[in-house]
Write a structure and sequence with these properties.
Oligomer: single chain
Structural class: alpha+beta
Number of strands: 32
Distance between the termini: 59 Å
Number of helices: 14
Shape: globular
Radius of gyration: 25 Å
Strand content: 15-25%
Largest sheet: 8 strands, antiparallel
Amino acid sequence: MTPSPPHTLDLSPIGNCAATALIDRQGRFVWACCPRVDGEPVFSALLDPTAGDGAGYWSVEIEDQAEIEQAYIRNTAVLRTVMRDTHGNALEVIDFAPRLHHLNRTYRPWAFYRLVRPLKGAPRIRIRLTPTGNWGRDLARETAGSSHIRYECGPVDMRLTTNAPLTYVRNAHIFRLEKPLAFHLGPDEPYPNDVLADSEHMLHATTAYWQGWVRTLSLPLEWQTAVIRAAITLKLCAYEETGAIVAAMTTSIPEAPGSQRNWDYRYCWIRDAYYVVRALNRLGAADMLESYLVYLRNLVDMSAGGHVQPLYSVGLEADLVERIAPDMQGYHGMGPVRVGNQAFEHHQHDVYGQMILPLTQAFFDERFLRLGTESDFAAMERVGERAFTVYDQPDAGLWEFRTRARVHTYSALLCWAACDRLGNAAASLGLTERSEHWTHRAKIIRKAIEEKAWNETLGIFTGSFGGDEVDASLLQLFELGFLPADDPRCVATFAEVERQLRKGDNLYRYVEPDDFGEPETAFNFCTFWYIEALYMQGRVEEARDLFEAMLARRTHSGLLSEDVKVDTGELWGNFPQTYSLVGLITCATLLSRPWTAIR
């Protein structure tokens, strides 16, 4: 194992719904994939590539550094890093991916801008740009033109256009910063404009876009800054061209130190995306939901009523064969680094409900540009038929067990929800017979869950039909409206989940050993589920205290990864994790005092 590099998950994402990058506290690009979020990393330092010392970065360094401050420009995805040296000189670095309205469309190329401006004196700086190719195996080969540098990064080529001295950039030479410098990194195409003037314009327009989008959100009274940052980051996890939403921007950050639980999350899980649009819907962000529904409708057509994978690429490609990237040593040297995800081969039957639930909103929401049609409903019925066929069949479950299949209660619950919501959609269209048909099927599944997931001996619902185990997904029984929260069966189940799975301020997904042994970290999303359940059980002050504890766990950029080490509070797992940010938004909207409290 190589020595641990000085990386943490205290990272700040920038992006524009086409390009994404993660920037560390030193203002270094340490992760960005091209030409899509699920493509190859051109900035790969986060996972320690073997291409050479200092590979996989884009940094701006100040000589004789004294201190660094970093924060987003308010209500935007634009990051500002201020660097000061020991002689009193200072500069700022402003990083963003351009996103603005132009020619009656949203301009969002795979591209990044860096503006480097002197704030005081003439600081001496060094620019290091060391992209990699072929999954960390090679340093990019570079060639220079009159005002640009071309980087050959394996299957992709990039071009840096700048008004900075190319000699200094190519040689990572220290030089005086006496005027603003602009850098545009994008596809290997001619850049026809003045890069400095253009970058200033793009900064202004991109800032205006994000601040305008935030103004459309319906925010809770409390915790607004936290909710805004979570909402912006969820939007950055969307690949707007197709409507896909990825689970996280990274691959292979271990769920726990040295655990081998390293997964590639740069794909669109139907389950995760459902929770994302559901959370943003609480804030009134209909744009992402509408975009995602386009992705879903294409997926419905592709499946034609047959098997649906749990996840697809952002371009709806189905083949996500999992392999190891041998030239990436991994986060803190903790490989393997996986590309692709074997879960695409799984049967996870909850996906049918998670397709139907968001699509149903199109039959009721008058804000939408395109309302649900009878043709849409007919296509959704094919998905419902599949849900009804498989609701009592074994699957890998939402926790994606690789070597174990059961009839998971959560999967059956979502199949029930699919039939129940199809009944609602049919009623909205005046299709009485179809509404009765789907309502009857929902009743059949309900009866099966109440009989087969209920353990009479233990007096609780269990995680699988005929089982005796509990897992955190049982909290969704009342959250999805299957039973009221005060139903004695739910109260008893909640108490058992709490007894077995709560560890301090955290809730584990489950505690029984799985394919990799006993879980070592708590799943942040499950803790948010637990907070929701506390609220619904009437334990509001306890829920608020636990929510505040979760907020205190966030990075300086206001974000969370997938998991937390309970004994140390250290974040682990892929980052930024949409599940975790969904939980933050959902709990904030539930727990906040109402606006009437101050009006």
